């Protein structure tokens, strides 16, 4: 049987090149011109889609393809500053003078798109072209994302980190579990610029993981990319993949955002933008170098200044960004090779000063700068076994500096100076002092990928094969946390200064292969994309590892029943590896006072016992995974286009932090009266009485102590429907009507692992002797149904576009849950006879949740018995919640009207204006939990002016 398969494979390999050679091949050449001015256009990217053949026009606009098989092909052309061209060309002889006409981008064109365009071939995704980006007047990438179905319009805000989540309800709260869940969604969203994924894995800018876990006070460490560092003026297009991505995209769970930056000839542009909180200025230029094969250079410079609140400008944000690019295509007439070099530098300053009327000296500053360098391109080899070779090599270097000067208040806290466990005579921190903290991070990342693709036909079946390898490495060479041990920050008491450069680098290897198949079935066509991705985290070799390996199968299909109906769907698995913050958390230092003696007229003596947990990591930490399912339909009824996508996602092993407890035994010396001079020597406390040295007695103290450790303790279940309905253009009023939106149902929960909690109350004058083990699987359920009713009025004669968006949120509600693995509630109230009424929560009644077990001081585990709920001391471990814990917070139907206007003045100026919540519609709402507040953001407006020379 094995020999039979060998013969078959040999036959296919032998016959395939003969099949290709047997066809009639022709030359295809032509010229690209400006349709209006008839000027020739250089550096235009031209592609024959079905063959995956491409080239670039020379400075005279000329292009050439050789050895083109006879057939009918789709020809596409794109160039910065021009509208994308798509047409059909029939090759049945040599074609030498084909004229390809392109229109310069302008609001004077008959058709222009200023909304996201849905890609309806396979996986659900949205493409946002440059015209739509400019009309949206973005300050950061989060503003562009508002064009994606399911997103809502938010006021631009650079005072805090901007992060992207896909298919999510962005409702942040102070609850730790909600913040962590959103951090996981942002971490699982890949931001890919010109084929290079941005990396945040080596960001270690944290304060103290042993008590705070993943702190988001000043950093996105352990989470997603802070998008404020990406200016939007150098972006040519954005594609948002919400569904099942190609296997070439990895280390993600939620989806991917693909950003293409500008390359090629552009006029000199200057832009100024202003709104109540943000001021921005930018300049850019693209130059064609003189001479054949010299290429083009681009540069862009951007400065942005933002205040959190102009009335109290205590917190500000500044960004300086510069980008340089060089692009060229060699060997244009035969086997073209594209070369793109991009260098990007950014510098940001995040300042915060406290209210001068309160603490005049307190201040906080965060600075970050970075340099990204990449070389990427494509080589058209056109061999029978490979069509194109795509390459990408990039390096990212960053400098992260955090500084704070804060007032700390303590009470009888040992000075945390020792690095060795044991008993020590120590000093006590002063009750109030100022501390200085510096966190120095120098994260770096390397990325390299090689991809090969090939296209061939077997009978009527067309195959487009892609396979490749990528390598990622990230680390941090920073000095880490630095502060004076005698004046430590208040939140660093349980840890010590730490150098990030001592932490091992994170390395990832991936192999991937994919086949995109097109198969005619009578008058219908079935398209299928099948791929597999192999991941190796911390590899020792290709198939050996110090970490873990995984396989990710992905499949998408689209069945084109007719021109007016397509059914599509798919399944795929994606995963995201832990960040360095999760892999290498801080060591824990537990300091307990064993003896304190500080009489007013004698020297002090304080003895502390220090317990050290060097490794607070989790050896069982796994990658976060997501199983994605999709089913959709694209159809047209009486000229109205419908795009519907139903989806379901199951995110497991999300990253979080939980307390790990242990039993700490230490000596507690007896109290000593006044008038003595005690000394701590050789592990004992001695004092003199009438000339005789005495040894002070002690007792053994035992109590539970803990530290936070990373854990796969979050899961998210998402389901919903996304929709786009395009009613087309009403020509008499030059207006296009469309509706888009989504229904999301998101269930965030702790993983089905019980949670251990320490009881802080005492029992019989001593520490509580048990650790409660509460049931897991608690969290929130959020639902939202929204619609964006869009009208886009385009008047080419005036070179003006005016768009309105009536944003309506029909359903917006959330509720808490706490249930067992079978979905039954674990919470109850008590009836008249003290019986437990599970799932019944009348107003005014306390809600109870029983533990599933507990640990004693010997760390012996005991299962919970029903009678423990009423017996001391066990009843102390029963969790109690207010009567509104399970109340559903349901907000009324809410709307706001947003408008945007763009007007061109000749070829040299463009004015844009936006206004969010034009009528300042902010109804008052009473929450059952937090009282009265107003829905919607306040009316917000801004404008920008662009000059072109």
Automatic annotation (TrEMBL):
Alphabetized GO MF terms: carbohydrate binding; siderophore uptake transmembrane transporter activity
GO terms classed as biological process: siderophore transmembrane transport
Subcellular location: Cell outer membrane
Ranges where the TonB-dependent receptor plug domain occurs: 121-257
This protein's record includes keyword Hydrolase: no
UniProt key word Transport: yes
Name of this protein: TonB-dependent receptor plug domain-containing protein
Organism (species): Draconibacterium sediminis
């Amino acid at each position: 049987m094995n020999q039979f398969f060998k013969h078959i494979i040999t036959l296919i390999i032998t016959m395939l090149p003969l099949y290709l050679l047997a066809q009639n091949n022709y030359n295809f050449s032509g010229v690209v011109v400006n349709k209006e001015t008839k000027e020739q256009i250089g550096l235009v990217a031209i592609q024959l889609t079905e063959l995956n053949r491409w080239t670039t026009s020379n400075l005279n606009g000329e292009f050439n393809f050789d050895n083109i098989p006879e057939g009918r092909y789709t020809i596409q052309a794109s160039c910065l500053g021009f509208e994308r061209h798509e047409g059909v060309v029939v090759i049945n002889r040599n074609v030498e003078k084909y004229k390809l006409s392109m229109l310069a981008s302008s609001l004077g064109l008959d058709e222009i798109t200023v909304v996201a365009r849905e890609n309806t071939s396979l996986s659900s995704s949205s493409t946002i072209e440059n015209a739509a980006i400019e009309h949206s007047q973005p300050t950061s990438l989060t503003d562009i994302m508002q064009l994606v179905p399911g997103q809502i319009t938010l006021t631009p805000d650079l005072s805090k980190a901007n992060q992207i989540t896909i298919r999510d309800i962005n409702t942040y709260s102070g609850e730790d579990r909600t913040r962590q869940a959103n951090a996981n969604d942002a971490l699982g969203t890949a931001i890919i610029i010109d084929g290079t994924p941005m990396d945040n894995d080596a960001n270690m800018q944290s304060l103290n993981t042993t008590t705070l876990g993943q702190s988001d006070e000043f950093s996105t460490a352990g989470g997603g990319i802070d998008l404020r560092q990406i200016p939007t003026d150098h972006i040519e297009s954005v594609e948002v993949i919400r569904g099942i991505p190609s296997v070439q995209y990895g280390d993600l769970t939620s989806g991917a955002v693909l950003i293409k930056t500008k390359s090629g000839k552009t006029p000199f542009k200057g832009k100024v933008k202003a709104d109540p909180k943000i001021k921005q200025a930018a300049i850019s230029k693209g130059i064609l170098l003189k001479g054949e094969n010299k290429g083009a250079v681009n540069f862009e410079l951007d400065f942005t200044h933002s205040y959190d609140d102009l009335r109290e400008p205590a917190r500000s944000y500044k960004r300086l960004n510069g980008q340089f690019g060089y692009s060229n295509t060699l060997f244009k007439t035969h086997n073209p090779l594209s070369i793109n070099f991009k260098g990007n530098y950014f510098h940001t300053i995040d300042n915060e000063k406290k209210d001068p009327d309160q603490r005049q000296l307190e201040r906080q500053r965060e600075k970050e700068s970075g340099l990204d360098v990449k070389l990427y391109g494509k080589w058209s080899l056109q061999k029978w076994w490979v069509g194109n070779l795509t390459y990408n090599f990039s390096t990212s270097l960053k400098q992260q500096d955090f500084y704070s000067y804060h007032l700390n208040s303590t009470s009888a806290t040992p000075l945390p100076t020792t690095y060795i466990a044991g008993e020590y005579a120590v000093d006590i921190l002063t009750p109030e002092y100022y501390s200085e903290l510096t966190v120095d991070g120098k994260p770096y990342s390397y990325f390299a990928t090689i991809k090969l693709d090939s296209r061939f036909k077997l009978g009527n079946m067309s195959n487009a094969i892609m396979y490749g390898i990528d390598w990622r490495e990230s680390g941090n060479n920073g000095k880490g946390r630095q502060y004076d041990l005698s004046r430590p920050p208040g939140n660093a008491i349980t840890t010590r200064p730490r150098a990030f450069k001592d932490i091992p680098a994170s390395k990832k290897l991936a192999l991937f292969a994919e086949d995109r198949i097109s198969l005619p079935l009578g008058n219908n066509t079935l398209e299928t994309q099948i791929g597999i991705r192999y991941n190796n985290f911390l590899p020792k070799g290709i198939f050996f590892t110090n970490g873990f390996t995984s396989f990710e199968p992905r499949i998408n299909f689209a069945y084109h029943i007719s021109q007016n109906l397509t059914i599509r769907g798919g399944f795929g698995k994606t995963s995201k590896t832990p960040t360095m913050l999760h892999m290498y958390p801080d060591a824990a230092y537990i300091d307990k006072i064993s003896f304190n003696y500080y009489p007013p007229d004698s020297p002090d003596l304080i003895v502390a016992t220090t317990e050290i947990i060097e490794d607070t990591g989790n050896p069982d930490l796994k990658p976060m995974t997501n199983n994605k399912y999709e089913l959709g339909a694209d159809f047209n009824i009486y000229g109205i286009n419908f795009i519907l996508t139903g989806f379901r996602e199951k995110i497991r092993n999300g990253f979080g932090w939980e307390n790990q407890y242990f039993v700490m035994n230490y000596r507690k010396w007896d109290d000593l009266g006044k008038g003595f001079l005690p000394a701590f020597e050789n592990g004992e406390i001695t004092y003199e009485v009438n000339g005789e040295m005495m040894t002070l007695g002690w007792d053994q103290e035992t109590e539970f102590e803990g530290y936070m450790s990373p854990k796969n303790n979050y899961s998210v279940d998402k389901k919903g429907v996304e929709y786009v309905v395009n009613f087309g253009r009403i020509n008499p009023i030059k207006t296009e009507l469309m509706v888009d939106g989504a229904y999301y149902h998101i269930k965030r929960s702790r993983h089905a692992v019980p949670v251990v909690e320490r009881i802080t109350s005492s029992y019989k004058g001593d520490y509580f002797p048990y650790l409660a083990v509460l049931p897991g699987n608690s969290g929130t359920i959020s639902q939202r149904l929204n619609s964006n009713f869009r009208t886009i009025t385009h008047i080419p004669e005036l070179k003006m576009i005016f768009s309105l968006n009536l944003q309506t949120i029909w359903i917006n509600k959330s509720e808490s849950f706490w249930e067992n693995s079978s979905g039954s509630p674990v919470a109850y109230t008590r009836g008249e006879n003290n019986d437990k009424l599970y799932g019944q929560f009348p107003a005014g009644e306390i809600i109870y949740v029983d533990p599933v077990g507990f640990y004693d001081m010997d760390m012996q585990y005991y299962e919970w018995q029903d009678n423990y709920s009423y017996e001391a001391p066990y009843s102390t471990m029963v969790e109690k919640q207010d009567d509104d814990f399970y109340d559903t917070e349901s907000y009324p139907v809410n709307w706001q009207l947003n408008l945007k206007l763009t007007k061109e003045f000749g070829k040299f100026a463009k004015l844009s204006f936006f206004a969010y919540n034009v009528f300042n519609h902010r109804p008052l709402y009473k929450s059952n939990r937090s009282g009265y507040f107003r829905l919607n953001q306040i009316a917000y407006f801004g404008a920008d002016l662009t000059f072109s020379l």
